[in-house]
Amino acid sequence: MCYGCGVAEDRDMADTISAAIRDAPEPPEPLDARTARREFAPRGAFLNTASYGLPPRGAHEAMLAAERDRAAGLLTTGMGDEAVRRARALFGRLVGLPPERIACGPQVSYFVGLVAASLPARATVLVADGDFTSLLFPFLARPGLVVRSVPLERIAGAVDGDVDLVAVSAVQSADGRVAAMDELIGAARAHGARVLLDATQAVGWLPVPADRVDLLVCGGYKWLMGPRGTCFLAGTAEALAELPAIGAGWYAGADVWDSIYGAPLRLAGDARRLDLSPAWQSWVGQVPALELLARVGVAAVHAHDLALANRFRAGLGLPPGDSAIVSVPVAEGTAELLAAHEVIAAVRAGRLRCAFHLSTSEQDVDRALELLSGRVTAGARRDDQPR
Ligand SMILES: Cc1ncc(COP(=O)(O)O)c(C=O)c1O
């Protein structure tokens, strides 16, 4: 591709945007969660969205089409731009924020790194024990910050006047525990601390208070069912303005295609100043997945995913929970046994982690339960104890 000579051409060629993106219904046509299951083609029972989400058929096809276009020399940068534009708008609709307050990049840790870089020396960051390292390492790697770690259940109570930022996952990757977000936001406000919420394990199935936190980061490849390589950072105008655009390249320019050569610095005036140049095929694949979520609606996805998770819990003799991720202690070799029967789950923090999303059916849950019979061991936690 010729960046220099193709500006006008690229704009013209935006006309050739793949049908999967261009022809998406606007506003979305409603779809019920059970019917949405038909959009997925797992080989067996897939209970592993907490590791990576399955693409709905349209998303998979759009990404493959983009890759075929690349092989044929027909990929256009206009196509990538349009995919990012639509993904940003769709994500905004999902969390209730305008696109001007959403940046697009590749990974959670990159955006968290910008937040870490923005903090003054000796700032105190409060985190939860055992949280995902893409949320922790950028703060730990920045010399001079004080990182205080407490159990998730005590994080709201641990906010005091010394804390500058609370950085926590809305839903824990390791075991699906849901943070007490209202309590935490209230405590942070009372003490003048900012909140950075990592919603990677939440947005897509759990309504999140995006308009009440200072910053929210969300990877696209799990519950948003995109390919690896898409991530969103949303925030208040004030919090975003304080982030240094130290990863800025041509894609962070006020007019992207007028920002490819030469000084002076001319960054976008909104959250786009934090964008990184997109992995084109990934963003093309992200759009139809976000469209499917918009069609089903977060409330319906939430009800669907929780119903499956609680069916699973009931089958194991556990009380109902509030998470689409269920983590249980199991006998050694259980994940392998499940995999041999095409039931896909993960082992995290020494426990079996099962995740339930639009790509999961009741039959999938029952199949997993059959195989798990007699293999769940007594756990240490209160919610491990069968009733
Ligand atoms: C809470 C959370 N944040 C972030 C990530 C991924 O981070 P990154 O995009 O830096 O790979 C994961 C992946 O499991 C996660 O569970």
TrEMBL record:
<keyword id="KW-0032">Aminotransferase</keyword>
<dbReference type="InterPro" id="IPR015424">
    <property type="entry name" value="PyrdxlP-dep_Trfase"/>
</dbReference>
<dbReference type="Pfam" id="PF00266">
    <property type="entry name" value="Aminotran_5"/>
</dbReference>
<dbReference type="InterPro" id="IPR015421">
    <property type="entry name" value="PyrdxlP-dep_Trfase_major"/>
</dbReference>
<dbReference type="InterPro" id="IPR015422">
    <property type="entry name" value="PyrdxlP-dep_Trfase_small"/>
</dbReference>
<feature type="domain" description="Aminotransferase class V">
    <location>
        <begin position="152"/>
        <end position="316"/>
    </location>
</feature>
<keyword id="KW-0808">Transferase</keyword>
<protein>
    <submittedName>
        <fullName>Aminotransferase class V-fold PLP-dependent enzyme</fullName>
    </submittedName>
</protein>
<dbReference type="GO" id="GO:0008483">
    <property type="term" value="F:transaminase activity"/>
</dbReference>
<dbReference type="InterPro" id="IPR000192">
    <property type="entry name" value="Aminotrans_V_dom"/>
</dbReference>
